């Protein structure tokens, strides 16, 4: 009997997989580490083939535990805004996967802004022009890989976000498709018409024909081809969704009012909105998901360096990892006036300044390594609070709290600090791999319409220290003003 959905969460630093039962029970887990290459300042890329091989590895681990016959279907959540281009016939990547952190398209984006196209792009996509998003990266690949643009014009190449790449590999090239959430992050989708837009393709110099077919997040994405993994041939792929969107779905958010924050390499804050809205405070309009029930619109703020700020500072201080940094930070009550702005690849929401770089202020003769460690933890929470405040301004109302997930959310000190800074409750998911759970929930809509997921109750952190939080914010804003030249 097919008892589990195999949910794959392909992320920047790890690829993970779960076997999820009808009640949300996790019967097996698997993980494979990923590496990121930084070949030039501001560039970030991964091997597309290594991404695929990591997915094969975690699938094989899960199947080895529960058996191929126990798998009812596959669900995919994935790192977003990362782009892969491959040969349609051979499925061979023509270049590395240019990931979301990469800034190589900064000059192209600047030229598009200078030409006056940004208002039209924002109106159609909800997204400001920034190297984070894939459209300009895709054009860069076509122009900088020998013969790529000509091959694209002949129809020899396919391109897509990581979900599309994995679907193509799992189906042996039979399906070239993506879901609405991932498509909404490309800057090539008109979120009003829910279709690829030829004018946006012209602006970014991207041939629309290279892009995948657009489907609902809970659609049929084809079947697993024989011999590609330990999965049985014909196993259906029944969900695909961007990881941040999947986490929002996994938190059970189905109406506006609650913000989801995923604390990963970067952070994504997302909240549902009643309809498409245009941000006036540095956020992005996006698609939460699309299902047979309709399209869920959302507002999002993307933070480029979040949990990675802790890993970076740990390395700078000669510590083993972010866990050791958190332990050191907990030995002092505050940062002793030190503030850290981790603009290590520029600043994302709500400031969108890709040219600035990290800054540490407030150093004195009394500064100790523990104060730097504390400042790094505080920086994660302060960036999230910045975006949370921008969301309240855009929506014109107070939000009812924050639901947290991701690796850094395991840090109690960070979560308490976060509650203090947003002046409201922070509910930490009792399930670590919420993106995979969210994808599994979507797949269950068609595979198991009667499924009832019972997840562990969240931990709740209530706001405690308003005065200390206000002091932290003041120091943070002063450092931001210095960095941004205001």
Level-2 CATH architecture of the largest domain: 2-Layer Sandwich
Gap between N and C termini, in Å?
A: 63 Å
Number of domains: 2
* Structural class by secondary-structure content: alpha/beta
Judging from the principal axes of the Cα atoms, what is the shape? globular
How confident is the prediction overall: mean pLDDT? 94
Helix content: 25-40%
Main β-sheet description? 7 strands, mixed
User: What's the Cα radius of gyration?
Assistant: 21 Å
**CATH topology type of the largest domain:** Nucleotidyltransferase, domain 5
Number of E-type strands: 22
- Order of strands, main sheet, comes to 16-17-15-14-20-21-22
Strand content: 15-25%
Name the CATH superfamily classification of the largest domain.
ATPase, nucleotide binding domain
Helical segment count: 15
CATH class of the largest domain: Alpha Beta
Q: Report low-confidence residues grouped into runs of 5 or more.
A: none
Protein model, in words:
By secondary structure, this protein is α/β, with parallel strands linked by helices. It has two domains: 242 residues, ATPase, nucleotide binding domain (Nucleotidyltransferase, domain 5, 2-Layer Sandwich), CATH 3.30.420.40; 146 residues, Nucleotidyltransferase, domain 5 (2-Layer Sandwich), CATH 3.30.420.40. It is built from 15 helices and 22 strands. The chain has a seven-stranded mixed sheet, sandwiched between helices. It has a five-stranded mixed sheet with strand order 3-2-1-5-13, with helices on both faces. The protein has a two-stranded antiparallel sheet with strand order 4-7. A hairpin with a 3-residue loop joins strand 14 and strand 15. Helix 10 packs antiparallel against helix 12 and helix 12 packs across helix 13. 54% of the residues are buried.
């Amino acid at each position: 009997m097919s008892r589990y959905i195999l949910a794959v969460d392909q992320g920047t630093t790890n690829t993970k997989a779960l076997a999820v039962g009808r009640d949300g029970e996790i019967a097996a887990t698997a993980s494979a580490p990923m590496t990121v290459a930084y070949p030039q300042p501001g560039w970030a890329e991964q091997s597309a083939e290594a991404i695929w091989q990591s997915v094969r590895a975690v699938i094989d681990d899960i199947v080895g535990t529960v058996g191929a016959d126990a798998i009812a279907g596959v669900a995919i959540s994935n790192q977003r805004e990362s782009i892969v281009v491959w040969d349609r016939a051979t499925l061979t990547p023509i270049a590395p996967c240019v990931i979301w952190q990469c800034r190589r398209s900064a000059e192209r984006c600047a030229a598009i802004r200078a030409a006056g196209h940004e208002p039209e792009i924002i109106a159609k996509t909800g997204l400001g022009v920034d190297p984070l998003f894939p459209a300009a990266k895709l054009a860069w690949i076509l122009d900088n890989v020998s013969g790529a643009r000509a091959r694209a014009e002949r129809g020899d190449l396919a391109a897509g976000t990581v979900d599309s790449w994995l679907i193509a590999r799992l189906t042996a090239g039979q399906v070239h498709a993506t879901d609405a959430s991932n498509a909404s992050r490309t800057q090539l989708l008109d979120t009003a018409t829910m279709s690829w837009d030829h004018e946006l393709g012209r602006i970014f110099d991207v041939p629309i024909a290279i892009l995948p077919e657009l489907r609902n997040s809970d659609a049929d994405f084809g079947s697993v081809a024989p011999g590609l993994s330990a999965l049985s041939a014909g196993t259906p792929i029944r969900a695909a969704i961007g990881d941040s969107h999947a986490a929002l779905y996994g938190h059970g958010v189905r109406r506006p009012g609650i913000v989801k924050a995923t604390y990963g390499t970067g952070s994504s804050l997302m909240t549902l909105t009643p309809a498409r809205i245009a941000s006036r405070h540095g956020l992005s309009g996006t698609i939460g998901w699309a299902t047979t029930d309709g399209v869920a619109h959302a507002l999002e703020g993307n933070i480029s360096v979040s949990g990675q700020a802790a890993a970076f500072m740990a390395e700078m201080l000669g510590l083993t990892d972010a866990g050791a940094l958190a332990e050191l930070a907990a030995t002092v009550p505050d940062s002793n006036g030190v503030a850290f702005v981790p603009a290590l690849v520029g600043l994302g929401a709500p400031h969108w300044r890709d040219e600035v770089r990290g800054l540490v202020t407030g150093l004195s003769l009394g500064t100790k390594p523990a104060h730097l460690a504390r400042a790094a933890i505080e920086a994660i929470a302060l960036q999230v609070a910045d975006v949370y405040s921008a969301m309240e301004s855009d929506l014109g109302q107070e939000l009812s709290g924050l639901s947290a997930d991701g690796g850094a959310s395991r840090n109690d000190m960070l979560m308490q600090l976060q509650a203090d800074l947003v002046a409201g409750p922070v509910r930490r998911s009792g399930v670590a791999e919420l993106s995979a759970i969210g994808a599994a929930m979507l797949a269950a809509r068609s595979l198991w319409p009667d499924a009832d997921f019972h997840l562990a109750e969240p931990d709740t952190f209530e706001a405690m220290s308003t005065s200390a939080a206000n002091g932290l914010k003041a120091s943070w804003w002063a450092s931001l003003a210095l960095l941004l030249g205001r």
